[in-house]
Amino acid sequence: MKILVTGREGQVARSLAERNEAHELVFTARPGFDLADPDSIVRTIHGVRPDLVISAAAYTAVDQAEDTPELAMALNGAAPGQIGRAAAAIGAPVLHLSTDYVFDGSGDRAWHENDPTGPISVYGKTKLAGEEALAASGATFAILRTAWVYSPFGSNFVKTMLRLAEARDALEVVNDQHGNPTSALDIADALFAVADRWKHEPRHGANECYHFAGTGSTSWADFARAIFVESARHGGSTCAVAGVPTCEYPTKAIRPANSRLNSAKFGSTFGYEAPCWQISLANTVTRLAAKSV
To answer: The whole model's pTM is what?
Structure first.
């Protein structure tokens, strides 16, 4: 299949490039493809004429979005609908990535796809608007909500913790927010699982929302501790982690306290489940440790 991927340098885009074995991937980015420019979206999709579009690019500066809601809505809310309409015009389905931030973070059980949404940040509101815009676009689609994404690429929590540990003996990390750490490499495998299924059954599981996240949940503080355990095994940086409540670590955008996602629907539909998050984390830290040697 010829697959057009929005974005080029993001964690998921780079993971797709690494994991690809059977498809022709075409990566798009500014200035030629700009989520803020509807004409560039149409021009790119109609020019490439892909068999499938993976909508991975987004405005992900969660705190900054509070100050730039119009821009965030244009990129996260309007652009997915524009991508969907352009893809529908050439008969290409769309795989779109969304987020746990569409929920309000209440409760202590994992969220299911049909649970009521209630975003509490500008970022979450714009991502939910993007889901709705894509669903109304006329395209064949699937939405994958994910959470707590990390990888060997770009900027993410794992790399930040390892960097901070090089200069500090102790860190304070919030311990009352819970979710599923998710490797972008596992997300890439999930996206290819859908692509491979759609190659033979074009509408299998289509026009649905799915959750896809690492198996098992934890807190940010315990996630940090696990990172340092793995780092220590390779002789890398490590430090003590003190858990603190969210109220002692204020951010401009409110984070959901409960970001746990139930991914059973995706697994039963497409036959792929993410590994336990500790396994994927170990693989990532091993790679990062090898780079630092």
So the answer is: 0.96
